[in-house]
User: Which sequence fits this backbone?
């Protein structure tokens, strides 16, 4: 007679008993019925196999000379709280059955038992396991959808929506992601968004700015240290890679790291282990790594200041964030969000922008990107006494009159070559966010030449 089909993949069953004959007979029975059986001779062997095997079901004798079945049950539930554990005993009592149930046993069966009775219990255990797994998957999907709709970073421009779609695609994977973009574009916002949509969302999201700490302190923060490894190391310290185990670790400004730190980061990505400062043994870590930089790492590789092998490990998925000047459609949405948040923090009503105030925000190039916009609006809220924000409340650099463009609704009369050159330089500077070094590169002139021209125009 063909046994009933098992739902999903064939369950892996760990059989634990101190009698070799019982182990072998149960192994053959389960194999013939479509299970994948593994055996452990004695409770101690069973306890040792559980973490490495991570079985779908555990079938264990209760009375064993070295380690009891109740201890096997306890270890199983520590490793995986959802694993069904079936206890077998030849000396069943009501008290022992109640203890087994209280400890979390799925079923308590008395020896000797009929094969069909045990198989029915095992199939129920497999079904229970599958239902729990499906329920967990469904809950994660519901949470992912809620996070996608409620916590989506603000923006409606095509370039920003492309970024969000890419982030949403890579989030459920464990791939390393390298986030690039100018300072203030929201690299940590995207990193947190990826984490919130990932299967690690219920675990830690930790971050560190690699450019904010000296090398020795950064090494200790990243990898930890042992007591006495250096002056001031008065006790063991857990590194952030270890603290973020099962979660996500965001390395901001990774382009600022030294060659020595880069070697150690490469080891983490390759071996998935860290060696604390002063330690001799490695510690395994299961941490997803997201990294960010405002530098061109490929250029840094050419200069010899960044390791190419580390770059390729980090650059599995590349997400580039556009500067705010390239996503002007998002400025009104961002401004509205910042003003609403400010009102909530201050327990005040939301202040509104006058049309000409919004025009000024839209016309400015925002070299500091979203961070600069947020700071400008915070200043404006503080300086505005009424419910409406006037342009005067904005920083002067935002409201300063911009030079009249060469091309406008009225055709200029006989523009000079100097006027054409001046307008072109202004256009390049605006597109480069006011960065004179990059503007000089775009113009094909030395920075010193650009500064002389700007000084002549009275714009240095």
Assistant:
């Amino acid at each position: 007679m063909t046994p009933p089909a098992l739902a999903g993949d064939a369950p892996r069953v760990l059989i634990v008993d101190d009698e070799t004959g019982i182990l072998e007979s149960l192994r053959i029975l389960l194999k013939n019925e479509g299970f994948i059986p593994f055996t452990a001779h004695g409770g101690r062997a069973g306890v040792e196999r559980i973490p490495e095997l991570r079985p779908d079901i555990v079938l264990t004798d209760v009375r064993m000379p070295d380690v009891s079945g109740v201890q096997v049950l306890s270890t199983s539930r520590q490793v995986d709280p959802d694993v069904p554990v079936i206890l077998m005993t030849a000396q069943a009592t009501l008290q022992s059955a109640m203890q087994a149930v209280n400890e979390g046993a799925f079923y308590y069966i008395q020896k000797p038992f009929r094969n069909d009775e045990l198989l029915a219990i095992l199939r129920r255990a497999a079904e229970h396991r599958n239902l729990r797994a499906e329920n967990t998957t469904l809950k994660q999907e519901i949470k992912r959808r809620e996070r996608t709709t409620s916590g989506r970073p603000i923006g409606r421009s095509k370039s920003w929506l492309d970024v969000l779609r890419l982030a949403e695609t890579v989030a459920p994977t464990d791939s390393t992601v390298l986030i690039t973009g100018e300072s203030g574009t929201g690299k940590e916002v995207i990193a947190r968004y990826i984490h919130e949509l990932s299967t690690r969302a219920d675990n830690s999201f930790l971050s560190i700015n690699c450019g904010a700490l000296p090398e020795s302190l950064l090494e200790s923060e990243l990898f930890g240290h042992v007591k006495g490894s250096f002056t001031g190391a008065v006790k063991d310290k857990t590194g952030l890679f270890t603290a973020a185990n099962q979660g996500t670790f965001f390395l901001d400004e990774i382009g600022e790291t030294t060659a020595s730190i880069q070697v150690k980061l490469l080891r983490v990505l390759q071996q998935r282990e860290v060696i604390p400062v002063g330690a001799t043994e490695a510690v395994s870590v299961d941490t997803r790594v997201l990294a960010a930089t405002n530098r061109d790492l490929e250029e840094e590789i050419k200069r010899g200041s960044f390791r190419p092998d580390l770059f390729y490990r980090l650059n599995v998925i590349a997400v580039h964030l556009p500067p705010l000047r390239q996503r002007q459609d998002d400025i009104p949405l961002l401004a509205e969000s910042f003003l609403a948040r400010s009102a909530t923090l201050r327990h005040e009503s939301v202040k509104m922008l006058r049309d000409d105030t919004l025009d000024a925000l839209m016309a400015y190039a925002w070299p500091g990107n979203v961070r600069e916009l947020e700071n400008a609006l915070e200043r404006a809220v503080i300086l505005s006494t009424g419910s409406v924000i006037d342009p005067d409340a904005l920083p002067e650099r935002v409201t300063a009159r911009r030079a009249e463009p060469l091309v406008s609704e009225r055709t200029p009369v006989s523009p000079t070559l100097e006027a054409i050159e001046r307008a072109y330089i202004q256009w390049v500077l605006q597109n480069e966010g006011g960065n004179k070094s990059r503007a000089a590169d775009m113009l094909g002139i030395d920075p010193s030449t650009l500064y002389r021209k700007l000084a002549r125009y009275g714009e240095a």
